[in-house]
Structures are given as structure tokens and as C-alpha cells.
Amino acid sequence: MESFSLILAIVVITALVFDFTNGFHDTANAMATTISTGALKPKVAVAMSAVLNLVGAFLSVEVANTISKGLVDETGIRPEVIFAALVGAILWNLATWLVGLPSSSSHALMGGLIGATIASAGVGAVHGDVLVTKVLIPAIAAPIVAGLAAMLATRLSYTLGKKADGKAAAKGYRTGQIASAGLVSLAHGTNDAQKTMGIITLALVAGGAVAPDSDPPLWVILSAGLAIALGTYFGGWRIIRTMGKGLTDLEPQQGFAAQTSAATVILASSHLGFSLSTTHSVSGSVMGAGLGRKGGVVRWSTATRMFVAWGLTLPAAALVAALAEYVTGFGNWGTALVAVFLVASSAAIWKISRREIIDHTNVVDVSEEPPGVVTAAIAAVTPPPVGTVTEDLTATISAPVAESAPPATTSV
């Protein structure tokens, strides 16, 4: 076992806390569509995802090596820098979870690492080529590729299934959706758990506990896998609701197409060592599947809020991490102050979340999204269809009164 200092132990514990938040923040990536279409019960879905996340953590270390060896210069990085990076990532994860936005835990971690590194060692300590080729380009390409693949797969499934028995086809797609959801969970463990492995390994190198260019030790792989699995089991119900019902309404065919497309993209990127956002991939595939069905829609107001969160993730986490690194520079009391701030902020976010509890009992209960300004304006000036009467139309001219019949005459 490596020799540990107190600060190094704090960093490792904080990294595992981040891994836990990554788990419940990203549960929606694997199981939101499966839950929303009724293929699996909510608690069964998150339990299955947790187990496969743990298994996936042992399949590769390529992404971990990208974080620990490629993104920043290992030399001159202190454990306090890693701690500050994790503070920025954790707080961004919790803030976006509170409002139910599926942002990227991966980019939060990398943004925190970049911000803390720049504050400590300058811009030159960040490897810009790695940042562009293995982080930024995949961030843009992944949702587009996954979305197009899901849209084409959805259209193909509906075309091939026209003559199939409706109930039998739906049952088959639900079965396929469960399998594809398991594949996404496995891919998530392969990609996201490794990011925590990489950050812990980087901290161990910075603290002199392991040699530079070392692969993650076995205990790091095991602890990271367990932390993300535990977080996954707790379930990020707020984000599951947004991903499963807030973006679009999915049928089993669409859910199967979305998850299969996302899993393919994630596994391919893990093999290549790309630090890909599983959130971007799954969100893109869900929107693609929504557009792939005839008459399907995407709720663009929700999607727009999500895109804004994506754009803010790297700079927001970097800014918080840079400020945290500045405070830790004052010594042990500065590090303690940052730790107290992290705990207090996390507790405050948790308390606010209790005002509206979302869990497995109400995760699929979503009210209709109110119309936007443009939709309401168009509805206001559009004439009603021919043959319809609006509810607020009242008669202003009284109906003619029927003339009375002349009195009958009698002859004498």
C-alpha cells in the first residue's frame, strides 16, 4: 500500500465522493428511457445499472490514463490542486442535479482540473492538444453522431415493424431495450468510473505515492467502481425525469434505438481513450430517437436549457476550482476552509432539494410543458378551424321572434 499524507487521504476521499455524485447524476444516461417506457421498474433499473457500472470499471484503463497522464503536466501538480479540482466538479454536479439538468460530470471534472492547474502552475501546464482532440471535439461530435444514428435506427425500426404484430413487437423491443440499457451501464462504468481512477492516480503521483506514468492500482479501480455503483443505485431521479420524459416522449422502439446508438458511441470512445461525456451521447440519441418517429417531437425549451448547461460546465467548474486552489494556497487552514465550504454548500443544496421530493414513486409523473412565447403568440393570431365555435363567443343579436298565427275565423 502506498504511503499517504493527510492531504492525500482527503483528496482520495473527495474523489470517491465525486465518483458517487457522478453515479447518481448519470443514472439517467442508462435507465431513463427504460423507466419512461415501462420496460423496467425504477428500482430494478437502477440496481441493474449499478452492478453493470461496477463490472464496466474493470474493462479498461485507457480513459483513466488520458486523465492522469495526458490532460495536464504531472510535474509541479500538488495534491491540493486535485482537491480544488474536485470541489469545482462536485458543486457543479450537485447544482445541475438540483435543477434536473443532465450536464456532463466528465466535463465538470476536467474543467475543475484545468482551472485548478492554471491557477497553480499557469496555462502552460495544460496540454492543449489533448484538451482539443480528446475532450472538446468528442464533446461536440458525440451527441451529433449518436443523435443521427438513433434517428436512422428509429426510422428503420418503424419501417421494418409495419407488418409485425403490435403487442409482440412492443414486447420484443422492451426486451431489447433492457439489453441495450445494460450495455449503456457497462459503457458508463468503462468510461466514467475511469475518470475518477485517473484523478486519484494523478493525486497519488503528485503526492509521491506512486511513480509517474503508473497505471491505476487495483484498489483504486475497485474503490472507484464501488463508489460509482453506489451512487447509481441511489438514482438521480430528477435527471431521470428530464431525460426520460422532459426531452421527448419515447416508445419502446425509440428507447431501444436511442440506447443502442449511445452505447456504441461510448464504447468506441472508451477504446480510443476519448474522455467522452456519456450525458452528451445519451441526450443526443434521445433527441434523435424523438425526431426519428413520425409525429415525434423534441421539447426544445428543455433542450435549450440543457445546451446552456453543457456550455457552462467547463468554465463554471474551472472558475470554482481556480478560486478553491487560490484559497488552499494559504496553507492548511485554507484547505480546511475550502473543505468546510464544500460540505456546507452540499448540505444546503440537499436541503433545498427536499422542498420537492422526486423519487422512484413519482419519477414518470410529468405535467405537460407550458407553451413558449412564440407558440402562444401564434395560437393567439391563428383563426379557428372552419365549423368550430370558440368558447368565449357570445351572441350579440337576439334571434328573431316567430310571428304569431292569425286568429282563426268561424263562419256562420
TrEMBL record:
The keyword Iron is annotated on this UniProt entry: no
Gene Ontology biological-process annotations: phosphate ion transmembrane transport
Membrane topology of this protein: Multi-pass membrane protein
Keywords: Membrane, Phosphate transport, Transmembrane, Transmembrane helix, Transport
Cellular localisation: Membrane
Pfam family, one: PHO4
GO molecular function annotations of the record: phosphate transmembrane transporter activity
One cellular component (GO) term of this entry: membrane
Transmembrane segments: 6-24, 44-61, 81-101, 108-126, 132-153, 218-240, 307-324, 330-350
Similarity comment text for this entry: Belongs to the inorganic phosphate transporter (PiT) (TC 2.A.20) family.
Annotated protein name in UniProt: Phosphate transporter
Lineage of source species: Bacteria, Bacillati, Actinomycetota, Actinomycetes, Kitasatosporales
